[in-house]
Amino acid sequence: MPSFNRRSFLQLGLGATVLGAVGTACSPATPAAKKQDARTFTIYWNAGHGYQAYKEVIDQFGKDHDLQMNWQKFQWPDLTTKLTADFRSGNVPDLVEEVSAGTGTQYGLAGNVLALDDFAAGDKEFGFPGDYLDQAVVARQYEGKTYSIPLHLTANGLLFYNKGMLSAAGFDKPPTNWEEFLEIAKATTKDKVSGCALNSDPSYAAPYYNQQSVDFSNAGAKQFMMPADGALKALQWMQDLIFTHKVSPAPVATTDYSGPQKLFSAKRAAMFVSGPWDIGPIRQGSPDIDLGVAVPLTGAVQSAAMAGSGLMIPAKAKDPKLSWELITKLAAVKVELAATKEAGMSMPRKSWAADPAVAADPSLATIAKSLAVVAKQDIALSASGKAAQINELWKKAYQQMIIQHAPVEQTLADFRKQAGAAL
Amino acid sequence: MTRRRQALTAWLFLTPAVLFFALLFFLPIGNQLLTGLYDSDGVSFVGLGNFSRAFGDPEVLHSFLITLAYAAGTLVVGTAVGLGLAVILNQALPGRTLFRSVLLIPYLTSVSIVGLLWRNILDPQVGILNRLLEAIGLPGQTWLSTHPLATIVGITVWSGAGYTMVLFLAGLQGIPSLYYEAARIDGAGPWRRFFAITIPLLAPTTLFVSIIGLISTLQQFALPYIVTGGGPGNATSLYAHRLFIVAFNDNDFGYASALSVLLLLVVLVLSLAQLRIGDRANA
Fold first, then answer.
1. Using the beta-carbon criterion (under 8 Å), do A266 and B126 form an inter-chain contact?
2. Does this model's pTM top 0.90?
3. Going from the N-terminus, what domains does chain A have, and what CATH number goes with each?
4. Residues of B in contact with A263 (CB under 8 A)
């Protein structure tokens, strides 16, 4: 019979501890943990869209299905990073807000999110796609499959202006074209106030180049920012607003796209171009500003860039049927109307646009007019899987032109070359 | 006790640490190395293709060069500032304990908060710094646009100066006062004493500070990500930021893994070189 002394007990105890720790770490999840996980429903959402209207739907959904609702909110770049890591690991959420039309297609073609057509076809009451504005649907489809359901539909290109500042400078109407915009920007620039404010986020350049009939991409032909003369005119005009006419401060390179809105709210800018998501922060943060929201400017043409998020279901979601059910509740017209009332957000449903409350709202009427002039998106770019990489190249080029005063023609040429190579 | 039993006991005590490092360090590094041998799809084997690609990638080369510039700037300025503060606060000044504590606060603050704080302070339009400059009649700054990399160096130095100061303080307090007294009797002035006694005897501390500083600056990601997003253009897209973009934006984990292994090699080589130089200097 072996003898046990204090050292032997110590060795045995240590060995058991190590084996126990390793065993626990390497063992599969316990049934109880799995059960707990199955009762948790995880949603990734944009931090700026955490409206009460959605919260009520999500809370009720949790109660109806006895689920623990894990509603996680992120800034868009962080959401994208987390989602990419999740897709790699296979540990995915149950429902995800899509940053913009086309992102779902990119994920879907890589097998990471589900095509939702069968769900929609089996749920006639939901009204997809019949009750949705075409541009919001088409931008999310590729080769007959739809990878996300539109949640919001907005236009980037609305002109925000401070009525008081324009009036003090002798203008009783907002500008309608680039010449008038420059004239008013010059007239309202004084002391610490800029006539306008440009954004460091490159997606905010889209309305300007769209207004010169420029397409960001034609993936099929491997072309970017064409026609070249229109792109040159648009970006040169933007650069001149800062460095020649000095009616806009050079934006600061950050991950925050709310710089112009903050300047406007602080009464340091008279005008800026953005989308409906800035109406709420201005009205709530600076109620003393007499805010005007006008339709997009006309350059060679009147145009705006389509914006707005969607909803997508990861391919490895625990129960896609349950995820679809929540989509139908979040995107119901009464929830859309509640979110609009709460935050001024515009929506993709035809029945939403036809609602008397929407039709009677002047800001929403302006948004509706803007939606009619949104430029078409290049679906093939999303399908190429290279959209994010090319957008990063565009960000670099845009900031070099707008912040660092790089020569526009050469920078655009370099961007075209790099983007073509990436594709 | 036999040698065998002794060895067994030693291994039992070592096992937790070995497992810890194997599972949480060496296994991921090995996995990283393996991933770096595959294409972005994670299936096609490309051998050393991702590694050779890095040497011809202008974005990667740019990010590597500005990272070296950032590391050099941060090390030189940070060491000088930390040493200066340590020398000052090593004197018998009233309230020096309070100053030492206050100077350490930035180091103890989360890098996210430091980044957001400075982004807001330096904002040319709504930042507090320009308000102060305007109040005293000076022109406003636009450093985040005109000198973005130098600004990031400045923020890093501000954030880490307290820690460097503490290390140098410990080194200073390890120098016997006898040396200074002897030098004073021999007629050496303050500068002479500083360069002839303080600097040489602080060499081990300086070596430690520079190695730790080099490793952390070559891996810097959070500050440029939060303050400038790598911009304007790619002016502050340091190597780790570039690596992040390749992985999470371009979704090319094979190439990103190769880049991270290359960074590991660079850090290893530079750290070993510093150690050798330090050893020679001390010898």
1. yes
2. no
3. 39-153+308-354 (3.40.190.10), 155-306+377-422 (3.40.190.10)
4. 125-126
